[in-house]
Amino acid sequence: MFGNLFVVVELERERERERERVSMSTPIKEVEEGDEDAEEEEEEMSRVVHLKRGGVQVTTSCGTIQFGMPPETIKDSMLLGVPIPKIFVVPPERFNRQLGPNEGINNAEFEFPAYAAFFFTGGKAKVQLIVSSEEVEERIRMVMQETLLGPKEIDIESDFADDYPRENMPDLRKELDYFSNFMGKKLTVDGLLGFNILNPKGWATILGAPLEENGIVPKVRIHHLNGEYTVYEQQSDGSDKIVAVVDENIKLPLPDSLPRFETSFRPPLFGVTVLGNSHGFNPGGKTSGYVVWVNRRGIMVDPPPHSTSILQQQCIPPSLIDGVIISHCHADHDAGTFQKILREGRVTLMTTPTIMYSFLRKYAALSGLDLEFLRGVFHYRAVSIGQPIKIRGGRFEFFYTLHSIPCIGFSVHFGG
Q: CA-to-CA distance for 328 and 359, rounded, in angstroms?
C-alpha cells in the first residue's frame, strides 16, 4: 500500500513540475483592459503547448491536434493531466536526420498513441493520422503490421538450432493469432489507425463531433505550405480563423548527458546496470533498458532512446558496449536500437532472424531507407534457440517467450 502511495505522490510531483515547465515556456504578456488584439493573441498562445519531449499540441474545437510524435510522447500528456490526443500530424521527416545526440530519433512514434486510444477505451476509439501522401500511409501500415500483429510470414525453423526437437518448437503463428483478438474481435490496422491525406494543395479537413446544444459540426482545416502548418478553425459565421502556426520541423530537446557521479564507472566482472525499469504507459518512469556486464564488457538489452547520453550520465564510456540485444519490435523496446544504429554505425545486433527481419521491415518503412541498405549498416549476429552463444567468456542461452509479437528472453551464465 505504502509503495503505491509513494508512486502516486511522486507522479503528482512530476506532473506539477511539468505544468510549471510548460507555464514557464509560454511567454506572458501584460494585457491592458479593452485591448482586444492583445487578448486574442493571449488566447491563441494558450492554445499551443510545446511538449517536453518535443512536438506541439494545439487545442481546437475538434479536439487537441499534436504535431510530431517523439518516443514516449503520450507521457507528456499524462504528466500534464490532459487527455492524450487522438489527432496527430505526421511530419515530413519521420526521423531526425540532423547530426548530434538527437540523430535517428523517431518523430512519428504513433504506436503508443494508437494503443492508448484503442485499448484505454475498450476498442471504441482510434487515432487519426494526417499524412502527406498515400505512400506515407502505406509505410505506416507496414510499420503497424509488424508491431501490432507481427510478421505475416514466419519461418520458425530458421530461429532454432539444427538439432532442436521440432515438437518442442512454439507455434508462433497460433500465439500471434491468439493475441490478435481483443474483446472478441480481430485486431486490424484500420481498427487502430485512421488516415487523413493532405490534398495536392496541402489541405486537410477535420470534422468534430456535433455539438449537443445546436448540432453544429466543428470544422478545422490544416494547411501545409512553405515549411509550416497553419491551423484554421471555422467560426459561427462560417469564416475561418487562424488559431496556430506550427513549424514542420520537430524541435527535440537536447538530452541531459552531464555525469551524475564524480567517480568514473568500473564495470563489474558480472552484473547488470539498469537504464530504465518501466514501460511505455508509465508517465513517471523510464522505459526499460539494461546493460549486462560480462568480463567487464557490456551488452545492451533493448536500449531506450538517447542510450548513449544515459550511459554518459552514469559515467559509463559507450566504448565498453560490445553489442545490442533486441527482444521484440515494440517501440518502447526497439526505438533506441534504431537510433544507435544510425548514430554509431557498425553496431552488433543480436536476435533471432524472425525478429531481425521484422525490425528491418519496420524501420525501412518508417525511415524510407532501403531494407538492404539498412541491413548493411550494422553487424548481425544471429541467435539460435537451443544453441548457446559465447560472449566474453559468458554463455547466453535464448528462448522464445509468450507475447503478442515474436519476443525472446535469455539467461546468462558466467564463471560457473
A: 8
Phi, psi of 345 (to 5 degrees): 75, -120
pTM value is 0.87
Sheet holding 193-197, edge to edge: 48-50, 56-60, 63-67, 87-89, 127-131, 193-197
Contact yes or no for 304/338 (Cβ under 8 A): no
Cell digits of residue 338:
534504431
Q: Which residues contact 324 (CB under 8 A, 6 or more apart)?
A: 299, 300, 301, 303, 337, 340, 347, 348, 349, 350
| Per-residue pLDDT tens digits for 16-29 | 555 555 544 444 33
Taking a C-beta distance cutoff of 8 angstroms, is the pair 112, 120 a contact? no
pLDDT digits (tens, 9 = 90+) for 25-69: 444 333 345 555 555 555 555 799 999 999 999 999 999 999 999
Q: Residue 316: phi, psi to the nearest 5? A: -100, 115
Query: Helix (H, G, I), strand (E, B), or coil: what is residue 74?
Result: helix
Contact 27, 46 (CB under 8 A): no
Q: Domains in the chain and their CATH numbers?
A: 2-21+35-132+198-247 (no CATH), 270-413 (3.60.15.10)
> Per this entry, what is the length of the chain?
416
